[in-house]
Amino acid sequence: MVAIPTTLVAVLILLPTLASVVLSFTSWNGIGGFDKIEFIGLKNYSDLINIYKPFWPAVSHNVIWLGFFLLIATPLGMFLAVLLDKNIRGTRFYQGALYMPVVLSLAIVGFIWQLIYAPEQGLLNNLLDRTAQGNQISWLGDPKLNLWAILVAASWRQVGYVMILYLAGLKSVDSSLREAASIDGASESQAFFRVVFPVMRPINLVILVITVIESLRAFDLAFITNKGLNGLELLSTLVTNNIIGETSRIGFGSAIAVVLLLVSVGPIIFYLFRAMREDNA
Amino acid sequence: MTPATGAAQLRIVNGGRARRLRRVALHAFLIFVSVLWLAPILWAVYTSLRPYADTGGDPRGYISFGGAYNLDNFIDSWTKGELVKYFVNTVVILVPAVVLVLLLASMMAFAVSRYSWRLNVALLMLFTAANLLPPQVIITPLFRIFLVPLGLPEFLSDNGRLYDQYLGITLIHVAFQLGFCTFVLSNYMKTIPKELNEAAVVDGAGVLTTYWSVILPLTRPALAALATLQVTWIYNDFFWALTLMNHGDKYPITSALNNLKGQFFTDYNLVAAGSIMIAIPTLVVFFALQKQFISGLTLGSTKG
């Protein structure tokens, strides 16, 4: 009963995670047997940092992604949840509109936003009257713009996701707390920041962790747009391009994966301890 | 009426006006945001209904009215993109994956939530951690593991390996989603009174019977929510097939988008129609199974 699921997780997830760490110290192209594995110490890591050009852009793009989500998408989702938590007319329509993109795949989100960003046939350039050759804005092609363009598309989905989670959290807040605050003369925003927000601490933390993890997982949009090149490098696309490209460099690809692992481990452990502690309470 | 009550009344009237103004502002803001949010989808629908000749191939351009409105782009993208093939691939992966993940996760959840043994929490943590990892962390060694010849029977794998096989994609989905489902189901099962187990044992039921005919039926709402969520997530997955399959022909629909780009991007009307058709199964979830989908999401984050 426990053996099959545990074996699956152990063999297909745990083992590869550990293997990533071990292989990152080797030069192995994956061809030939395990006897061809040669340990080369930290060389992959020093190459990654010093020689491999896309590495630092990828790191900075992941950081920008996280910053954009933390400062814009997530707070906007929370703000909309707070507005929609009141019993106002039409709340179902508003919620529906915001939540619709959440069911879509990010790959489809990428396609739908191509209709907006395309240089000649896209909505945006048509609205701005910039469709003539030589006068076009290349939203997805220009490396100064494309990251921001796909961040807007990613946020289109993230805002609704955060809204759903936060709305569920708000519903669980005892309404007498808010009443008490308003009887004591607190304005609505005071009541929210001084009473509701602190009570929502567990949900706030979950949303924080989800935001961080989603930013580290960012992949589909960048890959469907241009395979994660030319302004859209992310740690996840670097790993992927290292194995599906012509050069399968298992050791080097693993080193990038380990960097991704190291930054993910913090939020994951934080989340686990929180979830399990609450569990036993 | 005394002056005092008059003043109070005046204040209420003013307060009422301010409140009404605030409410109008609130609705104006929410309508603005909702329209903004729906705009990309509405734009896709509008573009998909118009032939290229009336938009891209016409001085009128895309932001215009008039010309023909029809379903030609849908028919075109359906046949040009060979969407049937990819939809079938999706079903071949999706159905067994969802059934398996729910079956295995419910067994696991039953074991960790109904019986206490030492590794309980450790296993649960391991499972959940596995689900939170970015898939790219494991892909490099996983890719290599999938290439290992396992001598699998023909009906499971035509090359004896997991690589480039529906089986491989199904299994990795199951492994990856097990954590989340186990976590949600075990929380749900904990709310079922322990006495039910004991009663079942007194009645002579074994562990399996207790699981299958006592606990599982009571877990049905959580299973329905998770099934909805898993169908959406696995349907929407882009990554696994992209990296663990070699033949584009075998791709499920979402991964196939990467290759369909070339065929669709001759004109954006075709892109619009194709996107909408591929989004339809998830839009069905949005319209028909909203309650299950949302409760699945929130069960995971707020623990019901």
Helix content of chain A: over 70%
Instruction: Give the overall form of chain B.
Output: flat
Question: What assembly state would you assign to the polypeptide chains in this entry?
Answer: heterodimer
The residue-averaged pLDDT of chain A reads: 89
Terminal-residue CA separation of chain A: 27 Å
Strand content of chain A: under 5%
Number of helices of chain B: 13
Coarse structural class of chain B: mainly alpha
Number of helices in the DSSP assignment of chain A: 13
Please name the fourth-level CATH homologous superfamily of the largest domain in chain A: MetI-like
Q: Indicate the low-confidence ranges of chain A by residue numbers.
A: none
| Order of neighbouring strands in the sheet with most strands of chain A | 1-2
The radius of gyration over CA of chain A amounts to: 23 Å
How would you describe this structure in keywords?
heterodimer; A: 281 residues; mainly alpha; MetI-like fold; 2 domains; two-stranded antiparallel ribbon; 2 strands; globular; B: 304 residues; 13 helices; 74% helix; flat
What does this structure look like?
The complex is a heterodimer of chains A (281) and B (304). Chain A has 281 residues and is mainly α. Chain A has helices at residues 3-23, 43-50, 55-85, 91-99, 106-117, 123-128, 146-171, 175-183, 188-199, 201-217, 220-226, 235-244, 250-280; strands at 26-27, 38-39. Chain A has a two-stranded antiparallel sheet with strand order 1-2. In chain A, α8 runs antiparallel to α9 (188-199) and α12 packs across α13. The longest helix of chain A has 31 residues, at 55-85. Chain A is globular and about 75 Å long. The two termini of chain A are 27 Å apart. With 304 residues, chain B is mainly α. Chain B has two domains: 1-37; 81-302, MetI-like (MetI-like fold), CATH 1.10.3720.10. Helices cover 74% and strands 0% of the residues of chain B. Chain B has 13 helices and no strands. Chain B has helices at residues 3-48, 72-80, 83-114, 120-132, 136-147, 166-190, 195-202, 207-218, 220-236, 239-244, 253-264, 268-288, 290-302. The longest helix of chain B has 46 residues, at 3-48. Chain B is flat. At the A-B interface, α1, α3, α4, α5 and α6 of A face α1, α3, α4, α5 and α6 of B.
